[in-house]
Amino acid sequence: MQWYAVRLYSFHGLYGLSRVQRNEIEVVSARKTAVRLLNVPRQTVYDAICHFKELGNDGRCPEKGRKRTVNTSRNRKAIEKPVQRNPRVTPRQIARDMGISDRSWRQTTKPVLGLKPYKLRKVQLLTETKTLTAPKMPKTFEMGRKLALGEIPFH
Description:
The chain is mainly alpha-helical. The chain is 52% helix and 8% strand. It is elongated and about 90 Å long. It has 7 helices and 2 strands. The N and C termini lie far apart (107 Å). A two-stranded antiparallel sheet has the order 1-2. Helix 4 packs across helix 5.
């Protein structure tokens, strides 16, 4: 008599291991014992055994749903190269050169590659003196607004 192990899966995260014999009478009794011992639905045990018989192992099934088309390893490498060559290149240019949409490019770069999906812009230089005067600026603008609206009278 040959023994084989069956891993039981359920959507509630209950896992268990039961030994089932190929002899049909003992298989039925083993299924009942597995249901009682693991406190899982009977159908879960039956599904796990059928799954084991089909695949020959207790591994996962191939993923269902639509396959990846843009976020492939080949495209990820193709995205990294132009950015490494020239960090100033725009996302739209790269997407256009690769023949994919701008949105697909952005969805690939941010979570997978860790890149920022936007072009860095030139802004004014923030010097040390500007940082020291920055906290005072909102007060100055507020005073100017009040003067303009006539809330503060001139003396």
